[in-house]
Amino acid sequence: MKIPKGSVKTYKQVAIGINRPKSARAVANACGKNPYSPKVPCHRVIRSDGSLGGFSAPGGIKTKKKLLKKEGFLL
Predict the structure, then answer these.
(1) Contact 9/43 with Cβ under 8 angstroms?
(2) 21-57 burial: b if 16+ Cβ within 10 Å, else e
(3) What's the pTM value of the predicted model, to 2 decimals?
(4) Residue 75 pLDDT > 90, yes or no?
(5) CA–CA dist 43, 25 (Å, integer)
């Protein structure tokens, strides 16, 4: 919820932000189980290599791309 529109953070950055620097995989799993997407904006969390990673909401990665573009994030 703290990642502003048009911005992204990596799973690792989120893990560091919650004082669990080795928990990037757990952050990714939690995002994947988010039942409140896109209201709880897990689409703003990406992989450290810059790729989008996954998206479990209907439409999958296409929806993630669409949401990020709508918010002004350049892919």
Answers:
(1) no
(2) eebbeebbeebeebeebbeebbbbbbeeeeeebebeb
(3) 0.90
(4) no
(5) 15
What's the rounded Cα separation, in Å, for the pair 5 and 68?
8
Which CATH architecture does the domain made up of 9-70 adopt? Orthogonal Bundle (1.10)
| Tens-place pLDDT, residues 13-57 | 999 999 999 999 999 999 999 999 888 999 999 999 999 998 988
Per DSSP, 46 falls in state: E
Q: Please count the residues of the chain.
A: 75
Catalytic residues: 42
| Band of pLDDT at residue 2, cut at 50, 70 and 90 | very high
Nearest to 52 by CA among 42, 39, 61, 41: 61
